[in-house]
Design brief:
Strand content: under 5%
Distance between the termini: 20 Å
Order of helices and strands: HHHHHHHHH
Oligomer: single chain
Shape: globular
Structural class: mainly alpha
Largest sheet: none
Number of helices: 9
Helix content: 55-70%
Number of strands: 0
Radius of gyration: 17 Å
């Protein structure tokens, strides 16, 4: 089955998964930074963790390990699912782990935690938008996706499905599993699970409509 083009080919796209080019690296680092900041704002909002974090919490409780180790092993298991989908990792896969974690930690450390409900909602909303935009931008660098985004892209390519449908299905599924295992779910978790896929798809659609993309047949609509 021919793979559908899920991610638009941009003017800043890398020539290969491991090439180091100024324009690509600048966009990749910027995208991962705002993704990490967005994730940090969601944490600070304290309205519920993202679905994958809920799953990590649940696994950590059941296996009696730290949430960091739980997240690591979940990522390893997710990357095993890349094999039948014939996905390859690249420089972006490695930087995804490092840069996002750095800016997530920096944001949580430097930004004051909101106390008023309005501020919490504002932090969560801005964080969600930054998370979606950052995800779309770093994927268009074509230097390899993070474990979870790679699974999303692989499923979209293999089965010719929309990004919004696949991402939302994944988020809801891991959220339910995490909750069953004992993870904490809040209103922010539900909103994230329902909205993030469509935000990413909207951002990809917007990028694909820019005038310097001659490619056709994108599976984004």
């Amino acid at each position: 089955m021919k793979k559908a083009r899920v991610i638009p080919h941009t003017s800043w796209a890398a020539k290969s998964l491991w090439s180091v080019e100024g324009k690509t690296m600048s966009m990749l680092l910027f995208a991962l930074a705002i993704l990490g900041i967005g994730d940090g704002l969601i944490v600070l909002a304290n309205l519920g963790s993202s679905p994958w974090t809920v799953l990590s919490q649940g696994v950590a409780l059941q296996a009696d390990v730290s949430i960091g180790w739980a997240s690591f092993w979940i990522s390893c298991l997710v990357m095993l699912a890349w094999i039948p989908l014939k996905l390859r990792f690249g420089l972006g896969t490695i930087l995804n782990i490092i840069v996002i974690a750095f800016f997530l930690g920096l944001t949580v450390k430097m930004m004051p935690e909101p106390t008023a409900l309005f501020s919490q909602i504002l932090f969560g909303g801005i964080g969600l938008l930054l998370y979606g935009l950052g995800t779309a931008l770093y994927l268009t660098c074509h230097q390899g996706a993070g474990p979870r985004d790679g699974l999303m892209v692989g499923l979209c390519q293999r089965f010719h499905l929309k990004v919004g449908i696949v991402r939302t299905s994944l988020e809801v599924s891991v959220c339910v599993l995490g909750y069953i295992l004992g993870g904490t779910v809040g209103i922010g978790t539900v909103v994230f699970a329902a909205a993030i896929g469509w935000i990413v798809q909207l951002c990809l659609n917007s990028i694909a409509r820019l005038p310097h993309f001659p490619y056709e047949g994108d599976n984004l609509h």
